[in-house]
Fold this sequence. Notes:
Blueprint: H1 4-15, E1 21-30, E2 42-43, E3 45-58, E4 63-68, E5 73-78, H2 89-103, E6 111-117, H3 127-142, H4 149-164, H5 171-178, E7 183-188, E8 194-198, E9 204-214, H6 217-237, H7 251-256, H8 258-261, H9 263-287, H10 294-307, H11 314-325, E10 329-334, E11 340-348, H12 352-367, E12 372-376, E13 383-387
Parallel strand pairs: 4-6
Antiparallel strand pairs: 1-3, 1-13, 2-7, 3-6, 4-5, 7-8, 9-11, 9-12, 10-11
Amino acid sequence: MHNFESIKSLFEQRFDSAPTYEIRASGRINIIGEHTDYNMGYVLPAAINKFIFFAGATNGLDHCRVYAADIDEYDTIPLNGEFQRSSKLWVNYLLGILDQYRQQGVSLEGLDVVFGGNLPLGSGMSSSAALETGFATLVKTAFDVEIEKPEIARLAQRSSHQFVGVPCGIMDQFASLMGREKQLVLLDCRSLEYEYIPCDLGKYEIVLINSKISHDLSESAYEERVKECAEGVKVLQQFYSQVQSLRDVSKAMVLKHKEELGPIVFKRCLYVTSENERLLQVCESLREGKVEEVGPLLFETHAGLRDLYEVSCKEVDFLVDFAVQHPAVIGSRIMGGGFGGCSINLVESARSDDFISSVKLAYQDAYQRKAEAYQVDIVDGTDLVKSIVYS
Length: 391
């Protein structure tokens, strides 16, 4: 785990100079609205106080020199000719961002970069989006590119699609960039219109329990779910001309055409349409300060992800089942793409230490594996922290 000071120190050691730019890129949570983003629905994320810190400077060379401190890996990225995919996934995320800027006509020059932080990899807090948005913000700053945060999010999403090969929605990048302290971002993934929802949790707090599990199914299953939802749209378009995505579909429409959809696609569509409805209920409850009403909706979402969308796993199911029984917890579900990562829990602050210690002990007994707990705060999103201009 690194902080800003250690990243700056590593930069100075490696490149024998001080960094010119310092960027803080935020991880994100998603309160509710899972797998709805690529279906053009709603999501309700927030930026959190788990970060990737970037220290950077131009180097006057025809290549970038980049050190990933958390995994102790170094690479160079030539800027001459077409960008070639790397065998290192993290390098491809950076290459994709550079490629997108080049497509926009930005004249790229060499950068020295060191990055690392306290954002756990594979935990469902979207370290990949923080890597993209942080690096994109660094490039924007270093080369004085006129681009606003929502467009950086779109640029990062295109990078994932076109270069990395991940058909992601836009939620992760948007939340990482557009997060605001003590606010949730209600994002319409079709129009990219957004509004901030106040998140005053009163006597409750957000606790993430990391299962430390990441099953290999996640990438292939993600692509399968995207296709299955698209199949559902094709079927329903035969009956409703206005349907362009599952965003345009109600739960009642799905139930009406259960036979035509078939058993698997029916379940996927029922989950997505139900999740959109739950999300809007959560927003209404938070606007009215009724935090206790949010908890049961999180439990419902977990059941949907487990039984209808089938992207949970036994380890995270165990964490949620434990949370259901604990008196301090009012809501819990799997967070992120699925097949591992974290559960997100709404926990009474006064009893959160008891919940954390008891769930970690139970998980250790059940799976001989240590879970990690993170008590997170909702903070501002990815941004430039310092830019030093030398005269």
